[in-house]
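Render this sequence as a predicted structure.
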Amino acid sequence: MFRLQNPEYLYLLLVVPVLIGLFLWYWNRRRAALDRFADRELIEQLAPGMNRRLPWTKFILLVLAIPLLSVAMTNPQWAAERQEVKRRGIDVVVALDVSNSMLAEDVQPSRMERARYFATTLVDELVGNNIGVELFTCTSLMQAPLTTDYAFIKSVISAAGPYQISAQGTNLGEAIDRAEEAYEDESANHRALIIISDGEDHDGSAAAAASRANDAGLLIYTIGVGKQEGSFMPVELANGRRDYVRQNGGGPATTNADPATLEAIASAGGGSYFPLSGDSKNLAEAIRAKVDRIEKQEFESQSFSTYDSYFYWFLAPAILLLLFEFALGRKDRKRAAELEI
């Protein structure tokens, strides 16, 4: 199979007719001026080193070199070998808690910021798998379907926040049930759910939901962010003033991380619980090691051709023509200089 790697350089061929037109115009103007100056025999006596054929020869060499250079720059290639590449991996849904409790600043800069940063790091570690993003509070939203467009996945994660789901509270059981709907039927036993949350759960059905999902072939890993001590949840008001999420009575509400709930979910889901308290990179690598143990499925098979380049077959003669054009006429100029002496 033949191809041109950079076909846009063929536009340089348009220069050739332009140069031919300019040269013919210049040559006619030059010949007319010489005829007005003197007849040809007298001109030969006045300019003994002048070669009337030389400008044409040099111009033809230049015109021949330009198409060769143009084709060389396109880098003509011929397929040398065809290879088939198979991509294997699993389906991974990253479920990110965006409830108001994630605004707490008991970890710096906040639970939400730490969770987003870790989720982005995790995506980089899980490259090669299909990844989706679910946001949840008391309800759930599949914000990004399973895909290999990792730049899109990371943009969804970076924009995640409580403002995206108006209903607040936390229902981890609902998040697990909704995540199951994102997987393809044929991906059973080739799928994982990674929940990033502070563990607050207002429903209490998460462990049972995790057990049902595990029976259907889903492994669940939980990442706990935040401290168990009570913490306020700061918010920015429309006027720019900083306030706190408040209880019905008007006082600031507090939130407590609940790692025990996340541990119970991971245990029921056949996975593991990890606290988000150390280096995000190391934790992401640990989770990747767990995910890599899951049996992978073949997503797609793509064929690629390797190509050999043949630009030098055109570049070499072009350079020779240009060198010959540059050297041509030096003998005539030297002879003319000797006659003048």
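Summary. The mean pLDDT is 85. Residues 138 and 280 are 27 Å apart (CA to CA).
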